[in-house]
Amino acid sequence: MRIIVTKDYEDMSKKAAAIIAAQVVSKPDCVLGLATGSTPIGTYKNLVKWYEEGTLDFSAVKTVNLDEYRGLPRDNDQSYYYFMHDHLFNHVNIDVANTNVPDGTNPDAEQEAERYEALIASYGGQDLQLLGIGHNGHIGFNEPSDSFDKITHCVDLQESTIEANKRFFATIDDVPKQAYTMGIGTIMKAKKILILANGEGKADIVAKAFFGPVTPQVPASILQFHPDVTVVVDEAAAAKLPR
Ligand code: PGA
After folding, report:
1. 164 CB under 6 A from ligand 1?
2. What is the mean pLDDT of the chain?
3. Residue 32, Cβ density class (10 Å: 0-12 exposed, 13-18 middle, ≥19 buried)
4. How far apart are CA 190 and CA 229, in angstroms?
5. CATH of the structural domain 2-183+204-234, one choice from 3.30.413.10, 1.10.10.60, 3.40.630.10, 3.40.50.1360
6. Which of 86, 97, 113, 157 is the most buried (most CB within 10 A)?
7. Chain centroid offset of residue 55 CA
8. 12, 38, 87, 131: which to mutate for ligand 1, most atoms within 8 A of CB?
9. Domain assignments of the chain as residue spans, ordered by start
10. Which residues lie closer than 8 Å to 164 by C-beta, 6 or more apart?
């Protein structure tokens, strides 16, 4: 595991984007596993900038996103489909047919999870998977639990997550109660993993995930067993790492 400590969020975003850019340059038809959340927004901004400057070409890149709410249509501005188009896909020359997010509107959850897992396998898996980390150590929607979920599945969101999300919706009834997520096994099959964290609020979980015991109670801790992980954290999120 390589740990890169950066000055601040801007610096983290630039270095993370540089790692993704290197992947795209060295394998123009690579499969990128992508993530949503506040953490990667700056990374996507840099990728868009380098595309605009002519440094990056996404025309042959394929993408698979980590997760999506169940029940939200694509045009809902809280869907992860919407987020990805808003922050990246609409601004680079990627072929939208090569971008993939679980379909939140499929009424058959089991079929959707199976379809998504098979799709990733048909691509030969992710060359590089980008991840954020939740305050509780979750990656994707793989929340702390008694075992590691292997493949793409539908999860019931925790009450605290529903409560935290309600500010984004008109009423509590509009807040999704379930989500699709790649499993821990789906994530671990990626050839390379790039995980980002910033801000002092993430300092405890970053230390726990990468220097604590490997346990499904801290889902990101499994990454200690992956052969090619790069952790890019700003100084604030690195504050509790052993020196
Ligand atoms: P954040 O979310 O980037 O909004 O902090 C990270 C995550 O929950 O994976």
Report:
1. no
2. 96
3. buried
4. 10
5. 3.40.50.1360
6. 113
7. 24
8. 38
9. 2-183+204-234
10. none
